[in-house]
Amino acid sequence: MSPQPNKRPGRTIRSVQIAFNIIDLLQEEAGIGVTRIADELGHSKSTVHSHLRTLEERRIIVREGDGYRLGLRFLDVASHVRDQIGNFDIVQKEVDSLAEETGEIVQFGVEEYGMVSYLHKAQGEHAVETLSRVGTQQPMYSTSLGKTILAYLPPERIEEIAAAMEYEPKTANTITGPEELFEELETIREQGYGIDDEENINGLRCVSAPVKNDETILGAISITGPSSRFTEDRLHGELADYVRSAANVIELNTKFS
Amino acid sequence: MSPQPNKRPGRTIRSVQIAFNIIDLLQEEAGIGVTRIADELGHSKSTVHSHLRTLEERRIIVREGDGYRLGLRFLDVASHVRDQIGNFDIVQKEVDSLAEETGEIVQFGVEEYGMVSYLHKAQGEHAVETLSRVGTQQPMYSTSLGKTILAYLPPERIEEIAAAMEYEPKTANTITGPEELFEELETIREQGYGIDDEENINGLRCVSAPVKNDETILGAISITGPSSRFTEDRLHGELADYVRSAANVIELNTKFS
DNA sequence: AGACACGTTCCCCAGGCGGGAACAGATATA
DNA sequence: TATATCTGTTCCCGCCTGGGGAACGTGTCT
């Protein structure tokens, strides 16, 4: 885990931290029990036990066999979260249809905590398999979604996020510093879409278009595919057009809601 | 909320309870702030403040405007939960294709805490709109998914769940007591599928088939539609066949994993 | 300028919570 | 069958944490 410069001060509650440590652990590895959790987190069994009881009563976790796993309540929470983000149905519909039309991977992402989170993803029929899943967090400097969203955030927020970034080179093409990033953002604003030319994963290219409501950016929609199919020409041509028009449809539908 | 007879004893941790009360509240209503939350939960502002700080540091919640909402991390958690349940991709694929084939609503549900949770849902093109969403919990006695799953649970678990049930009549056809329920379960076991004849919502009928792994039930798959299209004959005929063969495909694919 | 929201900070002190150890079952090993 | 060694559970103690009240800072209305 990277250091977190955005740590605001103020008191934080230990028991709650422990509870979420347990949840995090169960997210990584389901089916473990009291002893194992206690060892892993460095707490006494009795402590962990009380916590598990609490979480179980809350239906956050479920006993299964001889161990615990996270409960299905999280699915419900997740669907509420999506709804709260606004117009998820339209986003979903547009992403799905673009994926079907093009046969590639289409994703919609929003910014949170200085990273991109994927809200929805659809795979067309000859889409490449990638590891990214809905909900995953990715850095903003190495993805077209991230750069595109960043380009349209308010200047002070761009500064803030850029300052907290650690430029880790994922491939030979990854952006490695702020100057380069700011130039790229400028380009994106000029052409109205963003490109990822194997900057995050070797062999993969993406184009993204911003989705705005008035002047505030809501997120971005992207299409991803292998460099073999995604030539320079297609990227800047028809593929860019695809995402821009999809973004437009979403914008039009969200504007009046 | 119904009373919870399954309350195991044991110590439970107050601060964690408070934290989840806050999360629950934010799930219901996003965008509220410290004061409002404090009022709603009957805590002091300072208490709520510390909790919000903790949750924010954990990225469970996010500041937005002047209020908080649940964070996108929940999407990630939800996708982990689905994976942990086992073979979600196969379930998803089968549900989607059945929905496309029939044009109706297809759902997959599993039992948790004596209720049915929807793991996945797909709407065909002329599907009726229903309120149920992924993650929602429904009672077991009034839904075909619920009854079907219940029918194949171990006897002692059936007893346990049935004992904790409160039979609330949703429509004129809702099952109203244990005897009636047990008879119905017997019928389901005999015919190998379960029917909901407007027992949960007026005008809607469903058929469900169980998905088992060896002798343990994993969940059930159902198809839902308006009574006008879902006649007695179709329900027990082609529609039952549809869900049973879909259930079979899932069973075959999960068996060897 | 005043009044009233809001979020934040400070401090206090009771009681909640973490930990150690003892206890209870279940499974394994001989 | 007895012994050992895993589990999960319960009990109790004492520290310190977390909840509450009140003061404070700030912005937004009259």
SSE topology sketch:
The structure is a homodimer of 257-residue chains.
Chain A: H1 14-28, H2 34-41, H3 45-57, E1 61-63, E2 68-70, H4 73-85, H5 88-102, E3 105-112, E4 115-123, E5 137-139, H6 144-151, H7 155-164, H8 178-191, E6 194-197, E7 204-213, E8 216-226, H9 232-255
Antiparallel strand pairs in A: 1-2, 3-4, 3-8, 4-5, 6-7, 7-8
The structure holds a DNA duplex (30 and 30 nucleotides).
What does this structure look like?
The structure is a homodimer of 257-residue chains. With 257 residues, chain A is an alpha+beta fold. Chain A folds into two domains: 14-71, Orthogonal Bundle (Arc Repressor Mutant, subunit A), CATH 1.10.10.10; 81-255, GAF domain (Beta-Lactamase), CATH 3.30.450. The first copy, chain A, is 47% helix and 20% strand. Chain A has nine helices and eight strands. Chain A has helices at residues 14-28, 34-41, 45-57, 73-85, 88-102, 144-151, 155-164, 178-191, 232-255; strands at residues 61-63, 68-70, 105-112, 115-123, 137-139, 194-197, 204-213, 216-226. The first copy, chain A, has a six-stranded antiparallel sheet. In chain A, strands 1-2 form a two-stranded antiparallel ribbon. In chain A, β1 (61-63) and β2 form a beta hairpin. Chain A is elongated. At the A-B interface, α1, α3, α4 and β4 of A face α1, α3, α4 and β4 of B. Chain A binds a DNA duplex (30 and 30 nucleotides) through α1 and α3.
